[in-house]
Amino acid sequence: MDRLLGHRLGQQEKRELVKSASYTYEQGGEYTVVIKVIDILGNDTTKTTRVNVN
Fold this sequence. Notes:
Elements: H1 3-8, E1 29-38, E2 44-53
Antiparallel strand pairs: 1-2
């Protein structure tokens, strides 16, 4: 089923709204962090960045 049609008919997939997230790394180092956002119509975007953990 088309995502927009599914949204209009109330048949979209159920997703949990996450307002914040955290993670604790066990070791220091450089890590890649990926964040994915999906809007109510099912459109998504992904952002990748590198972080240094001491």
